[in-house]
Amino acid sequence: MASGDEIFVRTISKAVVVDAHGHAWNYHSRSDHHSKVACWGIVFDLLRASTLFREHVAAGRVAFGINHEMRDFRNDRKKNLDLVICQPAGGAKPGKRSLLTLADHYGIDLTNAERAELTRLPALHDAPVGNVLVALEAKACMTAHQKALPRLYDELNSSHLTVHGAHDLAIAAGFVTINAAPRFLSPGRNNPFNAGRLRWNDHDQPKAVSITVDKIKQLPRRSKTGVDGYDALSIVVVDCANDGSPVDLLSAPPAPQPRDTHHYSSMIDRLRGLYDTRFAQI
Question: What is the pTM of this model?
Answer without folding.
Answer: 0.96
